[in-house]
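Appendix B. Raw example, untouched.
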Amino acid sequence: MPLGMSAYLALRRFQSLALEVVGPVALGMLLSASVEMLQLFTPHRVCSTVDLISNTVGSALGVFAGFAFTEIANIPPTGPEFRVRDRGALALLFGWVASLLFPFFPVLWLSIWRAKLAAFVHAAPIDPIPMLLSAAEWFAVGRLLLGAGAKSPLRWLLAMLLLAPAQFAILNHNPMPADFAGAALAAVLFIFFGKRPYADRPAAIALLLAVTLRGLEPFHFEAVAQAFQWIPLKGLLTAEWQNSIPILLGKLFQYGASIWLLHRARTGILRSTAIVTVVLAAIEALQVWIPGHVAEITDPLLAVLLGMGLRVLSRNLRGAPADRTEPVAA
């Protein structure tokens, strides 16, 4: 995917649709075919047609990602520089898509498809906390699209909603009815309130509230506190990577979007970071008495790092705030 996206961005200057679309896919296929053929002569390696197909499809998906990037960031095909309205918003959007599609590998077994559909059908149609979290996330996506300078934020939001059912085809993803209900609710709310200038603060409050409720669920406190983990990312690093990385990406989006929305509501990047960090620290402090949760320092630390990153991205090369359109070297 990175190869396909980079090649698409590099070939746009020739202003040839065939070249910028077919070229990256052909390049990815040629590279993959070369590696697979070399594996015929490499001990303990297998030349696989499945790998060739997967890498070629990945290159094609990279072309689509490059197209989405240029459309959202409004990048012209030529010129010494391009303008990005909000680099932090664009980074959060790509992180959101990655959290929904990682590990970017399709489900190839009918038994897994049947298990996913059975779990979906038998799940509760209305689950308040996941539904609130899904709605808050998707509404934040709409505000991020608006902040990134998308030509038609509503159109892009509706197109991105297709990522919800697409998770049925992604390994280790199990979408539930509450996810679809929350996404639909967010789309309706965005149609009526999404472009209002005062929408950022309620969106940030809703997202933080949903994160808090999810962190305190099932709202049952034990008499004996469990140990607090002071080693950052210990739980994620000791878990299966295909399951832990999407969780990490989802947290990065939720905490980063909360900071970004508060910042857009004129709270200030440092104060916004402090608010989100304090909320997450309070959740972790309470989780030592809540079963089914692991209280650790990771989440507050992630908020601090995200605040630092968004502070950097909110400034251009001269250090000016990026609330206005800013030039970035191509």
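End of appendix B.
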